[in-house]
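Typical record is below.
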Amino acid sequence: MNSLKRTMTAVVLSGMGLCAQPMLASAAPQLSIQSERAAHPRLVEAIRLLQDGLKDLEAAHDFGGNKAAAITDTRRAIHSLKRALYYRLKMDDAAIDSAQ
């Protein structure tokens, strides 16, 4: 009787271990562009505002000769923010630039 009890206990405990494995695997977050954007809404908003400002710069006058430099700097800032936002996804520059 005692060995039956030990065997049943071992079966129950090993079954609990098997049940816990899928839970551990599913506990790891699935990384995606959407999950990174959801985790950092202020960075997403900053990128959107810079993109809107870039459109204004491109459509406007020369801003006293500063337009070209401002456009270049704004594009770099957008790229840098996207690189920071998506760093865990290990994206190359072309993928970062095409990400919305």
Summary: The radius of gyration is 26 Å. The chain is about 75% helix and 0% strand. The chain has a mean pLDDT of 82. Residues 30-98 form one domain.
